[in-house]
Amino acid sequence: MTDLAILYEHPAWLVPLFAALDRRGIAYERLAPDGHFIRCPTVASAPNLVGTPEQLKERIAEYEAAGLDLLLLQMSPQTEEMERFANQVMGTA
């Protein structure tokens, strides 16, 4: 199991992201939506991951301690923000 999983519906949209992750040697898993239950979050159910890298690490650790084993992230611009998340929050790049 990797630390990063990307659930995608349209593979062509994520070609640049996958290429950037591959160039940097960041391990990830591609998850097609087939067979996965997807619930679109509302404002009330969103994880509210906003803050400094240290604050995000703490918040994610709280979710893990509560039993969360999958975290779906949406960022924009996607490639740049996923790279920043990997570098500053996950510390994997």
Topology:
Blueprint: E1 5-7, H1 15-24, E2 29-31, H2 53-65, H3 78-90
Parallel strand pairs: 1-2
Helix pairs in contact: 1-3, 2-3
Structure notes:
The chain is built from 3 helices and 2 strands. Helix 1 packs parallel to helix 3 and helix 2 packs across helix 3. Strands 1-2 form a two-stranded parallel sheet. It is globular and about 35 Å long. It is mainly alpha-helical. 39% of the residues lie in helices and 6% in strands. The chain has helices at residues 15-24, 53-65, 78-90; strands spanning 5-7, 29-31. The model has no long low-confidence stretch (mean pLDDT 78). The chain has one domain (5-90).
Tag the structure with descriptive keywords.
93 residues; mainly alpha; two-stranded parallel sheet; 2 strands; 39% helix
Seen as an oligomer or otherwise, the chain set is single chain
Counting structural domains, the number is 1
Approximate shape: globular
Which strand order spans the largest sheet, edge to edge or round the barrel?
Answer: 1-2
Question: Tell me about the biggest sheet?
Answer: 2 strands, parallel
> What is the helix tally?
3
Report the strand count: 2
SSE pattern, N- to C-terminal: EHEHH
Low-confidence stretches: none
State the end-to-end CA separation. Answer: 17 Å
- Kindly provide the radius of gyration, computed on alpha-carbon positions and rounded to a whole number of angstroms: 13 Å
Strand percentage: 5-15%
Mean pLDDT: 78
Helix content: 25-40%
Structural class: mainly alpha
